[in-house]
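Reply to dn_fold:

You asked what the input looked like. This is it:
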Amino acid sequence: MGAGLSEQSAQPEYRIEDLAHHSGATVRTIRAYQDRGLLPRPERRGRSNVYGDAHLARLHQIADLLDRGYTLASIKELLEAWDTGRGLGGVLGLVAEVHGPWTDEEADRISRAELDARFGGTPDEEAIREAVELGVLERLPGAETEEYLVPSPQELAVAAELYAAGVPLAAITGHLRELRDQVEHIASRFLEFTTEHVFARYLEHRPPTDADAAEAATMVRRLRPLAQQTVDAELARAMRLLATRHLQIHLSPDPLRVEDDQARVVALPAGTIRAVQSLVGAEGVEAFIAAATEREVNKRTLDTLAANQRIANELTQ
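and this is what came back:
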């Protein structure tokens, strides 16, 4: 039969193998979608199953939603909404807005030779592997020379500057992993915050109506730059504060020496600072450490007084 015009319907018709070829899905996948209710059953013609353009369009819709990160269960809900006349236009517009660029930065390409030159001129396969694993580089198959896509040229430039300043590549990638965990936590909290206070009203229906989805997409465009602006401002504030402290600590000739009329300056381990931040937040670190120190001093003072009293009692007996 193949793809062609039917004398009865004057519409393109496909066998399942032809449908697989035109859609990019496998025959097995098409049958699985039918079993899940994602794809309408074909029309039966004698001993053959006949598919049409509606099936082809549905397969393209499913592939697009899968690329956007939807699960098959959520895709089924969306497609059922489409079939009952509620439409997908607003929802897909919202999906496109969320999946749109969250930065003005444009990706670039770099050859392996250029990459090696920027990082000391000596090939380092382990560093390349880690960069690909982290998504700093993406391999470009089929290129005549070994090339990589660079999603964030700024991030690669920062790594090159740190390396030129003497930071080992292993330390740079380790730092990036730690930083990424912290930034993803910040992003998660921002999404939870905005969902609770802004987007919850648009998501009362599953899937949302076209009107609600379109309004939510507009709100995403408005709020998109706020997360980065807030992080930029807070990072600048924290760097001013902490850089000054670090400078004071490292310029002090003896930071652990106690002067009679001066307070002792002690550099706490970074791990301790992070642990305190996880308990009380960045703003409460100083107060927490001061309170903990005062409590420890008072406890030791009381212990000393109690010990002295015991000794005194023993001497008078």
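The chain is about 65% helix and 5% strand.
Hope that clears it up.
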